[in-house]
């Protein structure tokens, strides 16, 4: 039985009670306690800065050339917080409730309530750091709605919220580096966790410039290494985003929670050819005004403008009249796939649907004409004024679309298709964010805890910063208070030597293969298996086939991969090979988890488990648990189940019709 | 949009490591789609090199959506290539036609030494931020966010400066390899906000000192930095930086 260590007592009092009773470490002792932080995105940078401020000795690692480039920087839309500045009835409870429901009742109540509680502090902290959030003319902060919630609780900085929040955390981190409280290791990749007497005591990292392996000791190790969406090859993740740090921890005893829970975002720019290296997200906010449609005729090759109104199928409005184009991400994505699979897709690949702004332009144009007292305006004036309104609201997104596709979205409908965006699954952690390995923690997207089977928009930034600024500073003390007598362990300890030898051995093995096929080519093949058989819709037969195919591909990889260059130099192909080798193992576990979970919930859709009209069918009786997988030798796993008890929110079937 | 394929000649800077002298190599690529991004064209070239048993070209890149600031190619003499307010990763091949020759170099600046091929070391920017590019507020010390109203125009101006992605194109564009646009963007971002007021004078003096130590050149107002900045950071920030610096020195409160 695994223990999630949720404090007893009333839901709203759990975190307060915990903070009042957890152990503390006095300032003198903090100075001799060392903490390793892997990754410098929102979770890692905020944790490293906060722990440095508290007086711990921190070492931070990132594989990028600067801490500021972590992929949190690419988040567009915003960050949720239960501030109720709009006086529209928001509260800690409502944010908690929305997150639990949005996660399709597969998240842990205790963690989510704490997240909602600290959400308001995040906004205060960021503003104090100088994060330039959008403001109203009175000088107060502005909010917008997001992702179908009924209140306006999303704070934002144009379409660059992630960038501004990360720069805030990065600047705090750089300040601690200047003060000597944090030592920064950029262009370093963590390649193993070192365990001594059952506890995490350090890492093996590779200096990516020199290729040298380094041993680093820590009384505790924090993994803030992000999600694993790149297992699909094509995703909205950065090219370097990877599972390696998390996977090494998993193989050293950290359970992996709900690995099959991935979020497919409905509005991304579609694949344009085999050369495609990544996919670009178009903010969810576009669905507020755009209408999504496909032709009513199969394999219709006419231009959008040549298809008359009565030959268009606004399938979301048809299927979900109550929510229309604003259904949640998982529902919108599946509906697009259903139409394309049935032969109604558009564009040269036939794997796209239209997102059309013509109606919005006309509607806004008429409003503008009315404002000017012109109640019988010519159409070209309506269109002109309407375009100006749309430009003000969505201009930067329309520009981005035009740069990538070369098409003008003010004139022709955008083509969009769903793409892998976020992973709700991740390293299993307890209430204190500690993994199943003592002294090893996971924060942000790297852990599994807060979003259940589907994440709501604008909640990823909230969770990353909650974990780093407001949770780990308390919970880590509860562990380190018992470590004050542990002296720093010299890195010539046999366990460090052994771990380094294993890492060196694997690198030599990879370099020794000298095969004929590039790392990129293997990664693409893995991605295709995952997307086809463990993507938006999954079934038992496909998943079983995928497991066999992944095993065969993995074997082929270890026999035939070609990595040019040497070990002791900057070698980006070797860096990639290390990551892809781990994705090949993770892919198998994801398929196993998806196979085991014979229900549909949130982003996980099992074709065998659907209602008569094709909607997701949850099975609370059999699957209301967190699947926590323990690694055994040679790619075997043991499943542990953490039962989910809903004390406050009563699970119901989601409906959007 | 009509799509087409093209064959190109690429002259790319190759340099084994920081010590190596380096030089141009010429490559031919075939059937490049006009729909590819510039970096996807490099992916094709690298795949080709690997298949030929050669070493692929090393370059920095990560988000490939124009926001992380990692990509950094000097293309036909211009940082991030010919499109205005566009990073290398967002430049697309429909800019080019069959038979074109494209010359690609790393950022050139003493303060950005080459690590390998097109990859340079930009940690000087991190050290400039360390010297004062922050507001000294520890976690947990913040008042309620709306207790501090900020004039919207000031907030918008601050945001426009904070949009800098730290890519270094301004330095690469400048004949003096000056980092004034980068530095002025950070000084402006913080000086325009009431939160930044307390450390305003020490910040600007310390950051300018650090910039000089890193070996960046002086500003001679050619404004190439603004022209090449992928985020359109205005040179008016440099004017503000100079005023802030002189004000701090003259007041004698800079320590």
TrEMBL record, chain A:
Protein's GO biological process: anaerobic respiration
Active-site residues annotated for this sequence: 329 (proton acceptor)
Enzyme Commission numbers on file: 1.3.5.1
UniProt-recorded Gene Ontology molecular function terms: electron transfer activity; flavin adenine dinucleotide binding; succinate dehydrogenase (quinone) activity
Record InterPro entries: FAD-dep_OxRdtase_2_FAD-bd, FAD/NAD-bd_sf, Fum_R/Succ_DH_flav-like_C_sf, Fum_Rdtase/Succ_DH_flav-like_C, SdhA/FrdA/AprA, Succ_DH/Fum_Rdt_flav_su, Succ_DH/fumarate_Rdtase_cat_sf
Catalyzed reactions: a quinone + succinate = fumarate + a quinol
Family annotation (Pfam families): FAD_binding_2, Succ_DH_flav_C
A GO cellular component annotation in the UniProt record: plasma membrane
The protein's required cofactors: FAD
Sequence ranges assigned to domain FAD-dependent oxidoreductase 2 FAD-binding in this UniProt record: 35-461
Protein keywords: Cell membrane, Electron transport, FAD, Flavoprotein, Membrane, Oxidoreductase, Transport
Membrane topology: Peripheral membrane protein
Location(s) in or outside the cell: Cell membrane
Domain annotation Fumarate reductase/succinate dehydrogenase flavoprotein-like C-terminal: ranges: 523-656
Family as reported in the entry's similarity comment: Belongs to the FAD-dependent oxidoreductase 2 family. FRD/SDH subfamily.
Name of the featured protein: succinate dehydrogenase
From TrEMBL, chain B:
Gene Ontology MF, one: electron transfer activity
Keyword annotations of the record: 2Fe-2S, 4Fe-4S, Iron, Iron-sulfur, Metal-binding, Oxidoreductase
InterPro entries: 2Fe-2S_ferredoxin-like_sf (IPR036010), 2Fe2S_fd_BS (IPR006058), 4Fe4S_Fe-S-bd (IPR017896), Beta-grasp_dom_sf (IPR012675), Helical_ferredxn (IPR009051), SDH/FRD_Iron-Sulfur (IPR050573), Succ_DH/fum_Rdtase_Fe-S (IPR004489), Succ_DH/fum_Rdtase_N (IPR025192)
PROSITE patterns: 2FE2S_FER_1 (PS00197), 4FE4S_FER_2 (PS51379)
Domain 4Fe-4S ferredoxin-type, residue spans: 155-185
GO term, biological process aspect, one: tricarboxylic acid cycle
Cofactor(s) demanded: [4Fe-4S] cluster; [3Fe-4S] cluster; [2Fe-2S] cluster
Matching NCBIfam families: dhsB, PRK07570.1
Family: Belongs to the succinate dehydrogenase/fumarate reductase iron-sulfur protein family.
Name by which UniProt lists this protein: Succinate dehydrogenase / fumarate reductase iron-sulfur subunit
Protein source organism: Taibaiella chishuiensis
